[in-house]
């Protein structure tokens, strides 16, 4: 695992054995930090990013989302959406747990005060796990961009999946059309 300090953020990146190195960890940390900035995340804070494969994402997708097969990214937020600034893509349900293309599940039971930390300590915002294998497959098939209709390289797809996962950790959702539009616009602006 490597830790990257960018502004008020610490991004901890773990690459599972055998996973392709498409984008340097420092570049992925900058992508995550930009998304945290744009989402108005509380700082200073930390975020975990795990780069994995389809097998692990399929297992987590079944366990946390109740879905069969791999997905490209899952997010595990630690804080409820209401602790983030209001925006058109905000998850209105106050959901927790794993989030993926289908939204979020579960409900936060702890109040915001339960996350109080001693001065100077970083709040952990959550963890994201991305299937690099899925990013490569989606890009090579021309099914990238979260909408499934963008043809670009696997490096761009991986950067998008990291951005998408960070936004989910920060309370963004795409269950409703207005949320989806707002999230897609922000993702494209960040990847500009």
Question: What would your notes on this structure say?
Answer:
It contains five helices and seven strands, in the order ββαβαββββααα. It is an alpha/beta fold. The protein has one domain (about 1-105, about 120-190): 3-Layer(aba) Sandwich (Collagenase (Catalytic Domain)). α1 (about 25-40) packs parallel to α4 and α3 (about 130-140) crosses α4 (about 155-170).
Brief description of this entry?
With 192 residues, the chain is α/β, with parallel strands linked by helices. Helices cover 35% and strands 22% of the residues. The chain has one domain (2-107, 122-191): 3-Layer(aba) Sandwich (Collagenase (Catalytic Domain)), CATH 3.40.390.30.
Question: What order do the helices and strands come in, and which of them pair?
Answer:
Blueprint: E1 2-6, E2 9-15, H1 25-39, E3 45-52, H2 54-65, E4 73-77, E5 96-100, E6 103-105, E7 123-131, H3 132-140, H4 154-169, H5 177-191
Parallel strand pairs: 2-3, 3-7
Antiparallel strand pairs: 1-2, 4-7, 5-6
Helix pairs in contact: 1-4, 1-5, 3-4, 4-5
């Amino acid at each position: 695992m490597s830790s990257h300090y960018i502004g008020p953020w610490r991004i901890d990146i773990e690459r599972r054995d055998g996973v392709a190195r498409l984008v340097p960890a420092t570049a992925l940390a900058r992508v995550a930090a930009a998304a945290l900035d744009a989402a108005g995340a509380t700082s200073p804070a930390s975020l975990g990013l795990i780069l994995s494969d389809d097998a692990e994402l399929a297992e987590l997708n079944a366990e946390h989302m109740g879905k069969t097969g791999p997905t490209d990214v899952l997010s595990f937020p630690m804080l409820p959406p209401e602790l983030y600034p209001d925006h058109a893509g905000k998850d209105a349900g106050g959901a927790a747990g794993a989030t993926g293309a289908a939204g979020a599940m579960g409900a936060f039971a702890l109040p915001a005060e339960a996350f109080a930390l001693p001065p100077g300590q970083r709040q952990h915002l959550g963890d994201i796990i991305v299937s690099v294998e899925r990013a490569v497959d989606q890009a090579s098939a021309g099914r990238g961009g979260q909408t499934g209709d963008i043809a670009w390289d696997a490096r761009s797809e991986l950067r998008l999946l990291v951005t998408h996962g960070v936004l989910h950790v920060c309370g963004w959702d795409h269950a409703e059309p207005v949320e989806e539009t707002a999230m897609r616009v922000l993702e494209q602006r960040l990847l500009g």
